[in-house]
Amino acid sequence: MISFTGSTAVGRSIGQICGQMLKKVALELGGHNAIIVLDDADVDAATSGGAWGSFHQGQICMQTGRHLVHRSVANQYVSRLAERARKLVVGNPRSNPVHLGPLINQKQLDRIDSIVKQSAAGARLVGGKL
Asked: For each of the chain's 130 residues, which pLDDT tens digit applies?
């Protein structure tokens, strides 16, 4: 049996090979999981969950890729989530206690920077810097 946790692209390849070999396979693939925040939500609890799901560099398979927030609480949610993001300590986990370590390499930094810069029309950066 082959068990794989990772990207959809690699999972497809592994699945295809395992299918040809008639080998059992379990694939836990990267997704675009969403957190849904309704109009009656406890915004502090929602931003706590949203922050935990989003601010860990993607090393878990249940990463929050999208925040779907009811418009009546959207501004409050964005403000509180950005506040949580600004409080995160980023650095070398071998040197200091940090919430987030560095990105793996310059290629990943460039990729993320590009995603932020090419985001949908009307998007605005509310935490961090470009």
From this structure: 999 887 888 999 999 999 999 999 998 886 667 899 999 999 999 999 999 888 876 556 667 878 999 999 999 999 999 999 988 888 888 888 988 888 888 998 898 888 878 876 667 778 766 5
Rounded Cα distance, 36 and 65, in Å = 11
40 lies in the same domain as 21: no
Same domain, 19 and 46: no
Does a structural domain hold residue 119? yes
Same domain, 83 and 94: no
Active-site positions? 28, 61
Q: Are 6 and 29 in contact (CB under 8 A)?
A: yes
What DSSP letter does each residue of 81-122 carry, written as one string?
HHHHHHT--BS-TTTS--SB---S-HHHHHHHHHHHHTPPTT
Domain assignment present for 17: yes
Residue 46 domain boundaries: 32-88
Question: Which residues face 69 on adjacent strands?
Answer: 37
